[in-house]
């Protein structure tokens, strides 16, 4: 019997075990080998097994000349980023978006929530770049105009297994001279559960406004750095299952800052806060025991001298800590860079053309949008 024939005649559970260990794009190509393999790869059980073996990579959204965003998905090796993207596609063309700027809200288990920024309202999408399936969420009939702020998060209920998009809206009165907010006249929160085709109003938001923050998802919760009207900074936490807000201990006890340059992320299995308010260094706080205030430690202090020193006006996000101690970070909307642990220096990363960027951790998966949404509402690009 030939090697090919031997492989074809293996028991189904062994074939599934082998195919689930392959990179996603390789496994997709295996669908065309035979009907049996197509059937095995198309099941939710295969998607779950493949997901359990997949390693996170990097998603980069870049705004290019002439308009439109290109999404590039990269893989990591043990200490760096692969130079060529695994996947590249033009977001606006693939999703049929005719105007505006598109960025990400978050990514969980290979599903990506995208936001197309509009003048009066936003359009949101959930897609899987591997299966090329996507669905557009219904418009929320809550138009906004300046001065107002809209903040999003994309989360997963660890109990029900439901994917949810959270939208927080603040409308305020601002000082006509300085632009500072004087009062908040309205604040509300809406939740969209994937598959329901409708938004639900869950009431007022019990905290001050947030400026440029997308809420990272971790441990069943979404998290935002928030400010009150006096400029004090705190962290707000949203329980995705219970759909309720709760206070969360920050490393800084209500400090006031002229510049709000604190960002949240998840690195090495811990919640992380990156502080870029200093002109000369980046401070990374890591919460070693989730939810315990005393477990916040200043784990990394990264010098920005000489190449990145100077007055800071953008947030820095920590994306990944590698085994050798290198740290991948992004300077909001501008560039990716590595902190090289051995030399204690910052090094810019080339990840395609140097235009406005957004980044996220992304894991290749076969999780299908059709498992949550009526099949007739799912599109393929």
From TrEMBL:
Coiled coil: none annotated. InterPro entries: F-box-assoc_dom_typ3, F-box-assoc_interact_dom, F-box-like_dom_sf, F-box_dom, Kelch-typ_b-propeller, SCF_F-box_component. SUPFAM superfamilies: F-box domain (SSF81383), Kelch motif (SSF117281). It holds the Pfam family FBA_3. SMART domains: FBOX. Residues 4-49 form the F-box domain. NCBIfam families: F_box_assoc_1. This is F-box domain-containing protein. It comes from Fraxinus pennsylvanica.
């Amino acid at each position: 019997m030939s090697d090919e024939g031997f492989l074809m005649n293996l028991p189904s559970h062994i074939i599934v075990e082998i195919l689930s260990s392959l990179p996603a794009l390789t496994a997709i190509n295996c669908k065309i080998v035979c009907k049996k393999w197509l059937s095995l790869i198309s099941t939710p059980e295969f998607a779950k097994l493949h997901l359990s073996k997949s390693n996170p990579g990097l998603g980069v959204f870049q705004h290019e000349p002439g308009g439109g965003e290109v999404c590039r998905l990269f893989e990591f090796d043990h200490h760096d980023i692969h130079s060529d993207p695994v996947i590249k596609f033009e977001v606006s063309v693939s999703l049929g978006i005719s105007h505006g700027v598109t960025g990400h809200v978050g990514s969980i288990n290979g599903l990506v929530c995208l936001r197309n920024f509009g003048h009066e309202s936003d359009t949101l999408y959930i897609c899987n770049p591997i299966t090329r399936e996507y669905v557009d969420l219904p418009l929320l009939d809550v138009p906004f105009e300046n001065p107002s702020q809209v903040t999003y998060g994309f989360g997963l209920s660890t109990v029900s297994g439901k994917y949810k998009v959270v939208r927080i809206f603040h409308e305020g009165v601002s000082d006509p001279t300085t632009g500072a907010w004087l009062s908040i006249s309205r604040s509300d929160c809406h939740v969209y559960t994937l598959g329901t085709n409708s938004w639900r109003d869950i009431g007022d938001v019990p905290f001050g406004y947030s400026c440029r923050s997308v809420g990272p998802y971790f441990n069943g919760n979404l998290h935002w750095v928030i400010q009150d009207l006096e400029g004090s900074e705190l962290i707000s936490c949203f329980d995705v299952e219970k759909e309720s807000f709760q206070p969360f201990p920050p490393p800084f006890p209500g400090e006031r800052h002229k510049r709000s340059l604190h960002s949240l992320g998840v690195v090495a299995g811990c919640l992380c806060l990156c502080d870029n308010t200093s002109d000369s260094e980046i401070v990374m706080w890591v919460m070693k025991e989730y939810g315990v205030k005393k477990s916040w430690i200043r784990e990394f202090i990264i010098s920005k001298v000489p190449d990145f020193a100077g007055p800071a006006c953008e947030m820095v996000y920590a994306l990944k800590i590698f085994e050798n101690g290198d740290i991948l970070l992004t300077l909001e909307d501008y560039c990716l860079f590595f902190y090289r642990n051995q030399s204690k220096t910052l090094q810019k990363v080339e990840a395609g053309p140097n235009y406005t960027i957004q980044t996220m951790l992304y894991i290749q998966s076969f999780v299908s949008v059709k498992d949550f949404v009526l099949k007739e509402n799912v599109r393929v690009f």
